[in-house]
Amino acid sequence: xxxxxxxxxxxxxxxxxxxxxxxxxxxxxxxxxxxxxxxxxxxxxxxxxxxxxxxxxxxxxxxxxxxxxxxxxxxxxxxxxxxxxxxxxxxxxxxxxxxxxxxxxxxxxxxxxxxxxxxxxxxxxxxxxxxxxxxxxxxxxxxxxxxxxxxxxxxxxxxxxxxxxxxxxxxxxxxxxxxxxxxxxxxxxxxxxxxxxxxxxxxxxxxxxxxxxxxxxxxxxxxxxxxxxxxx
Length: 232
Ligand SMILES: Nc1ncnc2c1ncn2[C@@H]1O[C@H](COP(=O)(O)OP(=O)(O)OP(=O)(O)O)[C@@H](O)[C@H]1O
Ligand SMILES: [Mg+2]
Hints:
- Keywords: ATP-binding, Nucleotide-binding, Transport.
- Residues 2-231 form the ABC transporter domain.
- This protein is of the alpha/beta class.
- It has helices spanning 44-51, 74-84, 100-110, 115-128, 145-157, 175-191, 203-206; strands at residues 2-13, 16-28, 33-37, 59-64, 67-68, 85-88, 163-167, 195-199, 211-216, 219-225.
- The protein has a single domain, classed as Rossmann fold (3-Layer(aba) Sandwich), CATH 3.40.50.300.
- β4 and β5 form a beta hairpin.
- It is globular, with a radius of gyration of 18 Å.
């Protein structure tokens, strides 16, 4: 499903060039659950932005479902994002003073889904993300960190993407809440067969995935399978 080949990403700040990704290649199959680890500044988010069609590489190819994403225009990239990809970012960007349900419905507004269908799909996504119905009408600034996380996951799911990308989704959670959020990702992967790629600093968190890619100085330095944690 994902085929990254010889990806190089160079950032230019004035006259200074910095190579954030230095010849990275790998493939990820449909339905895999992959964690990306590596030191701060190693290029993880840069890689995720490319995988998420938010940015294109300086050179190299990125095939997503056999389509070469590395040569697309901004409009074409936006189409790919809308149709195929769900994002969970560390800054979740929920709208404050807006209910949980409305936050999850928002991507559907842009996708042109109307009326009762919109509400129904948002509720389904919240359920899939493990959010208790009691909170659907709470304001997003009046729920806990773990609940915010579930809303962010629900919002990433609501367009039914085949690929879910998450940048440090447990970064600011206590370890217990982090585990619960990871169990949610595991269920989405196993039961709904979504491909998931997740960045984390924590080994414990990464062990929930099937496979870990280690990035250092913009290079892939290790690619290994895990002894997968079980869902309790
Ligand atoms: N827009 C940009 N312009 C210039 N340099 C950038 C830009 N974005 C990232 N960089 C640089 O590229 C390198 C990789 O950044 P990236 O955000 O991918 O790291 P990361 O592995 O996600 O780090 P962290 O774990 O701290 O989030 C860093 O040295 C960073 O300073
Ligand atoms: Mg980062």
